[in-house]
Here is the input.
Amino acid sequence: MIKKLFFLVLFLKLTVLLLIFLGFNLLPFNSNTYSQNFLYSKGEKISLASAYETWDAQHYLFLSQQGYKPNNQSDRFFPALPFGIAVVNKFVNNPLIAGLITSNIFSFLGIFYFFLFCRLLLKDEKQAFKSVLLLLAFPTAFFMSLVYSESVLIFLTSAFFYYLYSKKYFWATIFVFFIPLARPVGILIVFPYYVYWLLDIWQRSKKDIATFLVKFFKTKETYYLLSPLLGFALYGLFMQITTGSFMEGFKTQGVVVSGWNISNIFDPIYFLVSLFSPSSFAIHGFTNSIVDRVFFLLYCVSLVIIYKRLDKTMFVYALMIGMVPLFGSFMSYTRYVLMVFPIFIVMGKIFAKKRYDLFFYPTLFFLLMLQTLFIIMHSLNYWVA
Here is the structure.
């Protein structure tokens, strides 16, 4: 199964890169949107490279070359991916090539860790393989092959959960330390991490409060819970040194992304207005996308299924990572929901049942068709996420 998965992932990644190449050479490129976007190489003419270094990729490439600076809109992107690109670029001396190599190495490893985790959690290799297929077919899965942080996040998160559920706590601690350095929502990993740990000790204590407290404070691995907090502290210290502000990334996010603000999470009315009554609707616009809202509603339905069919840790992880619109914006939600991988795990489990097996391949086909459309749109600078 591992060998089969390797060649499948390799084929899909090459297909993504080939579709971008064909799209650029056969279809019109949206030069108007491209010229209005952030360009890390000012004055650069539109070329094939432009189809691969789109949107957020420009920021990651800029940061890998120029680093973080005060009052720069790129500061909202977290340092794990730019640092990886900078390291690889020392060997290839081409930022775009370095970015593609970095992202594809991370996502290759991430997909394999995801398979190992699914197999461990579901205790069934076929169900695990179906979960991976659903992840790979998802309409925005192609971002794992481009210069985007999805590649780093799928690697760190999948490896973390694999080692956590394998009870290899030291290795889990190493991976969870770096998750807050990958993306703003990374710090939310503390919630499923703590839920897993508390429930594990509670079970080992045979649900006795006194025994639970003794085990919690006397178990040396309890101190591993500090790891994601230390990772976030390292991120803040890095930003303090480079930009002069501990929270520069979050402040810049609020300035650049329309409607985004941490305080919005305490204002449900703002969220409901954002969901149902934006100034106007578009099939797939920046913040007024019908597609994004449909995926959000499907995500909400999936939460019920995840709660019933998976464990509480997976439910809490899905709840934390998928609720980003509570901060006030639906921008790029179809891409963000890709990281809510308990959806693919639970769907793999459902499709393994005989009465649903008939719908599995038609579902894959539909998702891949949509992904193909999104790849071409994105590479030609038409908005996807």
